[in-house]
Amino acid sequence: MARGSLLAVGVACAVSASAPPARGGDPKAECLAAADQGQSLRDDGKYRRAHDAFVTCSNDACPKVVARSCAQWLRQLDDASPTVVLGAKDGAGADLTTAHVTIEGEPLTEALDGKPQPIDPGEHTLRFTRPGSNPAETHVVVRAGEKNRPVVVTLRAAAQTPAVAPEPTTSAEPQQPSIFTTRNVTVAMLGVLGAAAVGGRAY
């Protein structure tokens, strides 16, 4: 799909009489810019963005020669665009119907409905996240023209940290020192014995 440089020259010459009047901008210039941008993006392998550009320049508001060319490029691009079918399972192997899927960190889809999802050719990192589950990542290399490639991950339930019961707090009262220590008991006994001896002699 080489860029139609000769066609672009012809388009630039032909649009002067066929474009509708401008409303806040030049429709002819916008169509030509979208056609040129779409070809550049396509050649760089950015098929999804090129698709949007070709849709813009193939609408009825554009000059017929531009719209026909963009419509043809759009059909060729759709044939060459790879698609993946995204899926996820839980830890028990059951299919999940929703997950937040990103590609290189940018949102791709939320629905896991079994429908093909257009994707650019090349190497990609797909990340699946879902509340209550651990995230999962997968790396794929898709090729131009590859259709309906399954990409399925397992989203296992996130382990919950058990709640730790707080330790009971006890208000320990300071203990009063006992007066009945070994030394105090000995002194007391000596005092009793001494008093008894004095009393005996007096008797």
Would you write up a description of this structure?
- The strands form 2 sheets. Strands 1, 2, 5 and 8 form a 4-stranded mixed sheet that branches. Strands 4-3-6-7 form a 4-stranded antiparallel sheet, with no helix packed on it.
- With 203 residues, the protein is an alpha+beta fold.
- The protein has helices spanning 5-18, 27-43, 47-57, 64-80, 182-202, and strands at residues 83-89, 95-96, 98-103, 106-111, 117-118, 122-129, 136-142, 149-154.
- Helix 1 crosses helix 4, helix 2 (27-43) packs antiparallel against helix 3 (47-57) and helix 2 (27-43) packs parallel to helix 4.
- It is built from 5 helices and 8 strands; from the N terminus they run H-H-H-H-E-E-E-E-E-E-E-E-H.
- The chain is elongated, with a radius of gyration of 42 Å.
How are the SSEs ordered, and which strands pair?
Blueprint: H1 5-18, H2 27-43, H3 47-57, H4 64-80, E1 83-89, E2 95-96, E3 98-103, E4 106-111, E5 117-118, E6 122-129, E7 136-142, E8 149-154, H5 182-202
Parallel strand pairs: 1-8
Antiparallel strand pairs: 1-2, 1-5, 3-4, 3-6, 6-7
What would you say about this model in short?
This protein has 203 residues and is of the alpha+beta class.
Quantity of strands, as a count: 8
Output the helix-strand order.
Answer: HHHHEEEEEEEEH
Low-confidence stretches: 9-23
Structural class: alpha+beta
How far the N terminus sits from the C terminus, by CA atoms, comes to 137 Å
Main sheet properties: 4 strands, mixed
Strand content: 15-25%
Whole-number radius of gyration? 42 Å
Oligomer: single chain
Percent helix, as a range, is 25-40%
What global shape is seen? elongated
